[in-house]
């Protein structure tokens, strides 16, 4: 039995909660803090106790993990209200840009904190999260946090918190890159004479299907690319453009670098 206190039930918080409940966590072992009445009602319908503020959490509820799932811009006001659990719980944050040093300021230098960067495919159980623990997180806490994060997808760990910025650049912001690629593929199809609705269907299905194949296949992305590329064929003609010196690889490198740099700025 793991008791969970969830601060914030937005899209990511709700997705994680759904994963925990589907994985066997008992609703009675979860208390959620959500001031929005409509969202609170939706969460309460799952059997979870929902309160409007930290002060309203039942006094006899002792969480093993406090999950911080509010937006970064409200964290400064919301997180310190949960400082009373420091020393007897682990804090798990999924807020972008909030560092382990920030949480030491909220909860004290001895608090056990895991900083995590998930991404939006968590909403369908296919996300990936990379986490970084501080020095006060023991093996049992780490295992519990990994189990909680794994409810919505894959989990990886880094020891160097600075790498979270690069993780943000690749996977945190990455879904938007893929969505934009769908837009670009569809627009290119329209430019070649396709009906816009059909072009969008083709682009979405192709990206989703290729992603699922990459997910299921034991072969590398490079090999999968080779598998569909006939010498001097149509795919090769397209790849000659995408793999040129000014093609997709350097463009993506610049994009990820820009997102990584902005992540560092927001955390600083």
At a glance:
The protein has 268 residues and is of the alpha/beta class.
Structural overview:
This protein has 268 residues and is an alpha/beta fold. Helix content is 49%, strand content 14%. The protein has 2 domains: 4-160, 3-Layer(aba) Sandwich (Rossmann fold), CATH 3.40.50; 174-267, ProC C-terminal domain-like (ProC C-terminal domain-like fold), CATH 1.10.3730. The chain has helices at 11-22, 37-44, 72-78, 100-107, 139-150, 163-172, 174-191, 196-216, 221-227, 234-242, 248-267; strands at 4-7, 30-33, 49-51, 65-68, 90-93, 112-117, 127-133, 153-157. The model has no long low-confidence stretch (mean pLDDT 95).
Give the number of DSSP strands. Answer: 8
Give the strand order of the largest sheet, numbering strands 1, 2, ... along the chain.
3-2-1-4-5-6-7-8
Coarse shape? elongated
Q: Would you tell me the overall average pLDDT?
A: 95
| Strand residue content | 5-15%
| CATH A-level architecture of the largest domain | 3-Layer(aba) Sandwich
Total domain modules: 2
Largest sheet, strands/sense/barrel: 8 strands, mixed
Structural class, from secondary structure content?
A: alpha/beta
State the distance separating the first and last CA atoms: 37 Å
Task: List unreliable stretches of 5+ residues.
Answer: none
Count of DSSP-assigned helices: 11
């Amino acid at each position: 039995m793991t008791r969970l206190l969830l601060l914030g039930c937005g899209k990511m918080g709700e997705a994680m909660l759904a994963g925990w409940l589907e994985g066997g966590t008992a609703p009675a072992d979860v208390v959620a803090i959500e001031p929005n009445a409509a969202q609170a009602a939706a969460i309460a319908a799952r059997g979870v106790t929902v309160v409007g503020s930290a002060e309203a959490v039942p006094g006899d509820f002792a969480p093993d993990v406090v999950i911080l799932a509010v937006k970064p811009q409200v964290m400064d006001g919301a997180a310190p209200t949960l400082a009373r659990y420091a020393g007897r719980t682990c804090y798990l944050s999924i807020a972008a840009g909030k560092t382990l040093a920030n949480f030491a300021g909220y909860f004290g230098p001895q608090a056990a904190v895991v900083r995590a960067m998930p991404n939006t495919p968590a909403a369908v159980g296919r996300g990936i999260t990379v986490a970084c623990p501080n020095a006060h997180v023991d093996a049992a806490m780490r295992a519990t946090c990994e189990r909680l994060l794994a409810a919505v997808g894959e989990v990886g760990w880094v020891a160097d918190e600075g790498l979270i910025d690069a993780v943000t650049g690749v996977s945190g912001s990455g879904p938007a890159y893929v969505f934009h690629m769908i837009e670009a593929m569809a627009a290119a199809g329209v430019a070649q004479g396709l009906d816009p609705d059909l072009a969008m269907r083709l682009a979405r299905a192709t990206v989703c299907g290729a992603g699922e194949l990459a997910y299921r296949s034991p072969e590398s992305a490079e090999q999968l690319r080779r598998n569909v590329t006939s010498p001097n064929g149509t795919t090769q003609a397209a790849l000659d453009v995408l793999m040129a010196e000014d093609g997709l690889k350097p463009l993506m490198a610049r994009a990820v670098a820009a997102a990584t740099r902005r992540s560092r700025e927001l955390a600083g």
